[in-house]
Amino acid sequence: MPVIAAVITAVATIAAAVIAAVASGDDSSSDGLRAGPATTPVTSSASTTEPTASADGPGPPVQTLPATSPTTPDSVPRVVVTPYTAAAGEKVTIEISGFAPDERICISFRDSGSVEKDLRDVITDADGRAAAVVTVPAEVGSGNETPVFRVWSVDNVDSNNTADTPFTFTE
Asked: What is the pLDDT of residue 72?
């Protein structure tokens, strides 16, 4: 809330400076506006630098958001299959993210009849990511479910460390 108050105060200060600048161009004092720049300081408990209105333009930003590191691991397990459609026996690339570093992950395939087959295990890198090339297994089910590639943590089975993505067989 202190940051919001600081932003509101900064906007009010800038508005007062604009009004004062417009009023200073008119010699009439009947409008009740004072001439000259605004002098109301802007304060924020979240920042050690206090922006103030000046003739040179606005002061420093009220708040700077932290930069996110491109190596920060995702917080939710994810899996991407490329291509997402292929025939049985063809190769696809599985990209995994959102797991803990050095975690053992099982890649499996569940067909339309809910028959699941483990394809291989991989170990994630320091960012919780991994990639593998696997062969699309033959469809053996005859159910109504959408086939999926699924990844799950072998090291942390009791948690919600799993992800899946739909897959389509081609002829």
From this structure: 46
